[in-house]
Design brief:
The chain has 265 residues and is α+β, with helices and mostly antiparallel strands. Among the domains are: 1-51, Uridine Diphospho-n-acetylenolpyruvylglucosamine Reductase, domain 2; 168-262, CO dehydrogenase flavoprotein, C-terminal domain (Enolase-like, domain 1). It has 12 helices and 12 strands. The chain has helices spanning 12-20, 32-37, 73-78, 80-85, 87-94, 99-104, 107-113, 120-126, 140-143, 210-218, 222-226, 243-262, and strands spanning 5-7, 24-26, 45-48, 58-61, 64-68, 130-133, 137-139, 158-164, 168-175, 182-191, 194-200, 207-208. The strands form 3 sheets. The protein has a 5-stranded antiparallel β-sheet with strand order 4-5-8-6-7. A hairpin with a 3-residue loop joins strand 6 and strand 7. The longest helix is centred in the last third of the chain and has 20 residues, at 243-262. It binds flavin-adenine dinucleotide. Flavin-adenine dinucleotide (FAD) is lined by residues 24-32, 49, 69, 73, 96-97, 101, 105-106, 108-110, 112-113, 118-120, 157-158, 179-181. Flavin-adenine dinucleotide binds at residues 24-32, 49, 69, 73, 96-97, 101, 105-106, 108-110, 112-113, 118-120, 157-158, 179-181.
Amino acid sequence: MYAFSIERPASVADAAQLAAAGAKVLAGGQTLLATMKQRLADPGRLVDLGSIASLSGIRREGDAIVIGAMTRHLAVAESAEVKASIPALAALASHIGDKQVRAMGTLGGSVANNDPAACYPSAVLGLGATVQTTERGIAADDYFQGMFTTALKEGELITAIRFPIPKRAAYIKFNQPASRFALVGVFVAQTASGVRVAITGAGNGVFRHAGLEAALGRSFTAQAAAGVKIDAADLNADIHASAAYRANLISVLIQRAVTQALAQA
Ligand SMILES: Cc1cc2nc3c(=O)[nH]c(=O)nc-3n(C[C@H](O)[C@H](O)[C@H](O)COP(=O)(O)OP(=O)(O)OC[C@H]3O[C@@H](n4cnc5c(N)ncnc54)[C@H](O)[C@@H]3O)c2cc1C
């Protein structure tokens, strides 16, 4: 690890000021500290968000659940509010990594990092959530911009994510067994503005699938999903799975996800 300094501000305003001056934000450290230990990152100066109480917590606001950026995966998984309103989101959080990762990792860190195999980005995109930052609210459709790339500007911090409560939703992933990241993960939601399908693990970052959304908009059934041909052309191929294998996984997982969503209500 390269040498670094660390500051622990007590307010979002102070954290934003430090970040604007070039300090790197530290949330749960599950990604950032690992890259620093391997000397793949040399931030020099860290600003730890862990002492800012207002960044943690889960609350219902009208027809949405608002979750603070520093809320740990474990808290989302165990939240009675989330389980009651968006059970798919609680279930997603409960299957991230292992116990240690869930105890430390945060919603804001995951969505800021935007790993192409991470689970939360598919829920943010699949539910049509809004990423609240120190400067603005960013619609999920504008936020994710490909592998490890987002609409966040330099020094802009995520403060919370606002998830509209869907009619029904489900998330199913096929684990990469060593890391438990998604080899493919599929989030489906019936929302006020129609069916949304977000896929993670399969491409150059999370993406929506127009063909599945159209078919499921006409008929929200596993059979309708099964009738959609998944094109492997733009999907990832690596040592874990070919593009064709991932395309087949998308088809299988969306059918299971729709069946699971229908069982909810
Ligand atoms: C072994 C292992 C298994 C994992 N398995 C999964 C899995 O199955 N599914 C999954 O989705 N994830 C998985 N993860 C990822 C993990 O859950 C964390 O979400 C992820 O590491 C980032 O969150 P963090 O809070 O640790 O962020 P950090 O590592 O602290 O930060 C990550 C990046 O986000 C930036 N950042 C952090 N917070 C903010 C903020 N509020 N505003 C702006 N920028 C910010 C940081 O500057 C940094 O660039 C796994 C991680 C590990 C180590």
